[in-house]
């Protein structure tokens, strides 16, 4: 008889082979009873020999133990978006741009359905599934590997020969037939039906209990390639062949075109065909076929230049708008929502639709009681498109958001305000419960204060149990109450526990000493992303200096002067002078503004302020700190003894130690194993003014390479990018 390890391995391979025969080829060799017998034998052997556990075992497809939360994982290569086009004219412009950029009269492209699902990236190392990560912000995403393992038709191990590294990008979705069956089962169980397949799939993917995910009947289709170490792939067709050879299901059908007319014909053909597909679609994805040409074209900051998504016109329906309710979002924005008579649109029943903002309502003259035309934007998000004026009942009134909510936030009763030049009304209360969970999530995130032990679920429960109503409340948590926090339900309680509580409190103590740019990002001030936070931190020593200093007011004033100059200019064609006297008066005012602008510009010039701290950022930051909410936050932080300091403060070249500006404007890519985690290396480079990218291009200045990283080294050599080690980096920064 074979040993237990040998039998376990044999059973795993045999069961996976039968899975492929059943799910992929529809040619089963054994009965369900025989399959169940093999599966039970494997389960019993794994239970008896836990030392041979393997997360990629077929037994894990049914779902393992509940998760505490989702860890963040950085993508090896960024998961970029694809630029959308909405008309055949725009599609022709895209193809003509390909002709111009490639220098070819007839560049070959592929056309495939745009799946209405949730983007995912799967990494296989030496043929075994390493992890599955959501798109997230494009740089990092949530680790949902345990949930993705429940997808029956997804291989957990690739057949030999498999690439050393294969990162496959694709979509998680629920097949339409399975979605209908899922809703029928929920109806029988007395549960509310899911609104649409995409939301149900996304929700299933983010379940903390993989056993619940397994019930959602998720499916996966591959459509793109991320990081890759294997035989060269000349074009998209070679990539498709690789997926077929490895048993990874891919997006189909795929058409090819080699002229503008042929491209339009194929896109129209797909529009007719896509309704026969088992998954929801909302467009066609067009890609340049040749991979070498793709490298040549590169990408913008958010999307590749060699691909686009053609969006098909959405289905529209009429219904009656019965009421307008107001939702309060993560940043405090008040969003009006239309409550309507239910109507079937693009395959699902719609009873609510976004109205975006008050200005949009007024522009479309939407009123309660109107008959409206709705559609699903991208066939996903319902939106009110227009009003059928002929059907308007008498007595309707124009909508006024401030009056509708009586000047108070519907969530907390706090004051609302609207910044000059902006259309959105916001709740200005820092203690607003509608924003509490999302603000805490931002606060604790890896790119913000990186507070371990408090994940999304803990954040939700802290707010739900009344232990925190704002991020700063985290610093007043008591060890006993935090340890006793119930993460489950009243029927099935699950305590956080002393160890996790201690870890969270220690992490909070460390957060007190985190640098200014992390705190700025953590506070969730509109327009202040990581790049803006770093630039603001460079210009100010402390948070208090930033809030009370004169740099941002001068940036704001400079912008206001520019706007006023445009308005009073004698050459303003939109508002020309009334007569010669008015022209002379305006010329005098213009010259005075011009002098003030020159003086301010001269004052700010030595600071070398980058675009990341431009007028929009300055206005947003000042509005926050001038508001009651901002002043309350500063007071709360002072009471807690927190005043974050900058770790990259260098507003003037004369103030900066030698080396602090040697990396300004330089772009780095990091690869291989280094002496510290990549995030730490990245922060060090950014603190010295450098930009850090995830992929090499002709615009890269340096590849910082540790052990390994062969493929990036090869590409750097090919593009003439300088490869340096940590010793050479130290020399650059001395």
Q: Please, how many domains?
A: 6
Name the CATH superfamily assignment of the largest domain: DNA ligase/mRNA capping enzyme
Structural class: alpha+beta
Q: State the strand order across the main sheet.
A: 2-11-10-3-9
CATH topology heading of the largest domain: D-amino Acid Aminotransferase, Chain A, domain 1
Largest sheet, strands/sense/barrel: 5 strands, mixed
CATH architecture assignment name of the largest domain: 2-Layer Sandwich
The span between the termini is 66 Å
Regarding CATH, which class of the largest domain? Alpha Beta
The oligomerization state is single chain
Explain this structure to me?
It is a single chain. With 734 residues, the protein is of the alpha+beta class. α1 (4-23) packs antiparallel against α2 (32-48). The protein has 6 domains: 4-53, Orthogonal Bundle (Helix Hairpins); 84-311, D-amino Acid Aminotransferase, Chain A, domain 1; 317-426, Nucleic acid-binding proteins (OB fold (Dihydrolipoamide Acetyltransferase, E2P)); 430-511, DNA polymerase, domain 1 (Orthogonal Bundle), CATH 1.10.150; 518-653, no CATH class; 657-732, Rossmann fold, CATH 3.40.50.10190. The protein is 39% helix and 18% strand. The protein is globular and about 95 Å long. It has a 5-stranded mixed beta sheet with strand order 2-11-10-3-9. Strands 14-13-12-15-16 form a 5-stranded antiparallel beta sheet, with no helix packed on it. The chain is built from 26 helices and 22 strands. 31% of the residues are buried. The termini are far apart. β21 (702-705), α25 and β22 form a beta-alpha-beta unit.
């Amino acid at each position: 008889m074979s040993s237990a390890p040998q039998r376990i391995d044999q059973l795993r391979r045999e069961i996976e082979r039968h899975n492929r025969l059943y799910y992929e080829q529809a040619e089963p060799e054994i009965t369900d009873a025989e399959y169940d017998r093999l599966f039970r034998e494997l389960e019993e052997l794994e239970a008896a020999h836990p030392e041979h556990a393997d997360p990629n075992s077929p037994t894990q497809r049914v779902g393992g133990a509940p998760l505490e939360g989702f860890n963040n994982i950085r993508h090896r290569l960024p998961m970029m978006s694809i630029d959308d086009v909405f008309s055949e004219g725009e599609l022709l412009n895209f193809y003509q741009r390909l002709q111009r950029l490639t220098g070819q009269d007839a560049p070959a492209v592929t056309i495939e359905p745009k799946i209405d699902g949730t983007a995912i990236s799967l990494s296989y190392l030496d043929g075994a599934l390493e992890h599955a990560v959501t798109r997230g912000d494009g740089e990092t995403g949530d680790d949902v590997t345990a949930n993705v393992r429940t997808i029956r038709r997804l291989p957990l191990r690739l057949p030999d020969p498999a690439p050393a590294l294969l990162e496959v990008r694709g979509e998680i979705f629920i097949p339409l037939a399975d979605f209908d069956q899922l809703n029928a089962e929920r109806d029988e169980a007395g549960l509310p039906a899911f609104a649409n397949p995409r939301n149900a799939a996304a929700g299933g993917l983010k379940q903390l209990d993989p056993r619940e995910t397994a019930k959602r009947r998720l499916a996966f289709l591959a459509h793109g390639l991320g990081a890759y170490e294997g035989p060269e792939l000349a074009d998209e067709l070679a990539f498709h062949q690789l997926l077929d050879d490895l048993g990874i299901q891919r997006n189909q059908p795929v058409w090819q075109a080699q002229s503008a007319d042929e491209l339009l014909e194929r896109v129209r053909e797909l529009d007719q065909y896509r309704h026969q597909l088992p998954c929801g679609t909302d467009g066609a994805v067009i890609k340049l076929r040749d991979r070498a040409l793709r490298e040549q074209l590169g990408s913008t900051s958010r999307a590749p230049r060699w691909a686009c998504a053609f969006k098909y016109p959405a289905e529209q329906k009429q219904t009656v708008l019965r009421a307008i309710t107001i939702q309060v979002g993560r940043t405090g924005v008040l969003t009006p929502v239309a409550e309507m008579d239910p109507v079937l649109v693009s395959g699902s029943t719609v009873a609510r639709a976004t109205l975006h903002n008050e200005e949009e309502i007024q522009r479309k003259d939407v009123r309660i009681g109107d008959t409206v035309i709705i559609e699903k934007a991208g066939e996903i998000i319902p939106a009110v498109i227009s009003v059928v004026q002929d059907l308007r009942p008498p007595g309707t009134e124009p909508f006024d958001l401030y009056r509708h909510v009586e000047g108070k936030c519907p969530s907390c009763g706090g004051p609302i305000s609207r910044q000059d030049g902006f259309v959105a009304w916001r709740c200005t209360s820092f203690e607003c419960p509608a924003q509490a969970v999302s603000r805490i999530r931002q606060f604790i995130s890896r790119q913000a204060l990186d507070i371990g032990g408090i994940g999304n679920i803990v954040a939700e429960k802290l707010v739900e149990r009344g232990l925190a109503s704002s991020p700063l409340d985290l610093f007043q948590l008591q060890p006993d109450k935090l340890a006793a926090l119930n993460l489950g339900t009243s029927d099935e309680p699950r305590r956080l526990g002393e160890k996790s509580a201690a870890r969270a409190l220690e992490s909070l103590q460390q957060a007190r000493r985190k640098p200014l740019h992390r705190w700025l990002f953590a506070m969730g001030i509109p327009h202040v992303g990581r790049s803006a936070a770093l630039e603001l931190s460079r210009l100010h020593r402390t948070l208090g200096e930033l809030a009370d200093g004169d740099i941002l007011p001068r940036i704001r004033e400079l912008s206001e002067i520019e706007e006023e100059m445009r308005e009073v200019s004698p050459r303003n064609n939109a508002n020309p002078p009334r007569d010669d006297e008015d022209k002379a008066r305006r010329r005098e005012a213009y010259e005075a503004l011009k002098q003030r602008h020159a003086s301010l510009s001269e004052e700010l010039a030595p600071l070398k302020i980058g675009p990341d701290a431009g007028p929009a950022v300055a206005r947003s930051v000042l509005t926050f700190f001038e508001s009651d909410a901002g002043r309350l936050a500063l007071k709360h932080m002072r009471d807690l003894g927190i005043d974050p300091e900058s770790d990259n403060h260098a507003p003037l070249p004369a103030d900066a130690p030698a080396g602090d500006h040697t990396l300004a404007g330089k772009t780095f890519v990091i690869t291989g194993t280094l002496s510290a985690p990549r995030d730490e290396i990245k922060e060090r480079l950014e603190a010295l003014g450098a930009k850090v990218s995830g992929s090499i291009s002709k615009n890269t200045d340096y590849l910082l390479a540790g052990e390994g990283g062969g493929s990036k080294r090869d590409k750097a050599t090919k593009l003439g990018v300088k490869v340096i080690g940590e010793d050479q980096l130290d020399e650059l920064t001395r």
